[in-house]
Design a protein that fits this description.
Blueprint: H1 6-9, H2 28-42, E1 59-64, H3 69-81, E2 85-90, H4 102-111, E3 116-121, H5 126-133, E4 139-145, H6 151-165, E5 172-176, H7 183-195, E6 199-203, E7 219-221, H8 224-228, E8 233-236, H9 252-259, H10 263-266, E9 274-276, H11 289-292, H12 299-332
Parallel strand pairs: 1-2, 1-3, 3-4, 5-6, 5-8, 6-7, 8-9
Helix pairs in contact: 2-6, 2-12, 3-12, 6-7, 6-12
């Protein structure tokens, strides 16, 4: 059976989000709407009552087949601030590890009248598969799938850039590290190009920055000084230690010597450059503590912005689902 295109699967007939699976193919208008809505939610964190009723009466299920305490926690907090009921399904101890298939698990959750699944999975394309096969009135949010995509992380980074730089036009952005295995890098590249930055540089050793990324519109740099020269934004990626068993790198210390962000290498960027990292940070492997904790770092702002972006995406997808159901009901009436 041919799979539907995730770029069309995630929009309703009115062009609104009903799932959030990938940034590939989404328009600048939709990405800007996500950022604008997230901006409106940021002020909520300063209020004594940190809730709005946009998802009141709705049930959100966090389906994390791959562990990530921080991402799951921010999605849970975002859903609760939207007044949703939240179920965290521990897949390690659930029926899927006892032989129940993914489809059986989904159908049981649908039978409980769940309204949204937040899915993190080690296999690329799993959220897309779920969106295709589950009930059409359940919104699917991709919280990271294999090497494919991590769209909410990319959008919280876009919000962080916009809040610090004011606009995207004219910006030069360097993404440094393990590009090959990074779903964050792929999603960031789509978002940055759509939002109109001047240049995206992918920086790292040849084993971790394949040349084919240039076909997506990026500039490939294997030298850190050339990659950071005159950039406005630096995104450091986690060096995935589980990959170190292969022959992709000689050692962590060698990587840090050649590609680690230190106060010296930071000086090659613009004087007002910002430093970002999706976390968790490996200090002394990708980035020095002086830089991670320094004045250029906006890493903690990324965490704050992540809650607002996830609130924006969840509320927009649920609204798109409701609009589609209303349109279908009127068509049948």
């Amino acid at each position: 059976m041919m799979r539907s295109d995730p770029r069309t699967l995630q929009l309703n007939e009115q062009g609104q989000l009903k799932h959030f699976l990938t940034l590939d193919g989404l328009s600048k208008d939709i990405l800007t709407e996500i950022l604008d809505r997230a901006e409106s939610f940021l002020s909520m964190g300063e209020q004594s009552v940190k809730k709005v009723p946009l998802l009141r009466g709705k049930t959100v299920v966090n389906l994390f087949f791959e562990n990530s305490t921080r991402t799951r926690t921010t999605f849970e907090l975002a859903a609760k601030r939207l007044s949703a009921d939240v179920i965290n399904l521990n897949i390690e101890t659930s029926a899927t590890s006892k032989g129940e298939s993914l489809m059986d698990t989904l159908q049981n959750l649908e039978a409980m009248q769940s309204d949204m699944f937040v899915v993190r999975h080690q296999d690329s394309g799993a959220p897309h598969f779920i969106a295709e096969h589950c009930s059409p009135n359940v919104a699917i949010i991709n919280a990271g799938d294999g090497r494919h995509a991590h769209p909410t992380q990319a959008m919280l980074d876009m919000l962080t850039i916009r809040r610090n730089k004011g606009q995207f036009e004219g910006l030069k952005v360097a993404i440094v590290g393990d590009i090959l295995h990074s779903r964050v890098a792929r999603s960031e590249l789509h978002a940055l190009k759509t939002l109109g930055v001047a240049e995206v540089r992918l920086v790292g050793p040849k084993t971790l920055v394949p040349e084919y990324f240039s076909e997506l519109g990026a500039t490939i740099c294997h030298d850190l000084k050339a990659g950071l020269n005159d950039v406005d934004v630096i995104v450091m990626l986690r060096l995935q230690k589980e990959r170190m068993a292969g022959a992709l790198l000689p050692s962590e210390s060698e990587f840090y010597r050649l590609y680690g962000l230190t106060e010296e290498s930071l000086s090659w960027a613009k004087p007002d450059a910002i430093v970002m990292h999706p976390g968790p940070i490996n200090r002394g492997v990708e980035i020095s503590s002086e830089v991670a904790d320094g004045d250029h770092s906006v890493i903690l702002s990324q965490v704050t912005n992540g809650i607002a972006v996830r609130m924006a995406v969840m509320s927009m997808a649920m609204s798109g689902q409701v609009q589609e159901q209303q349109a279908l009901a009127e068509g049948e009436g």
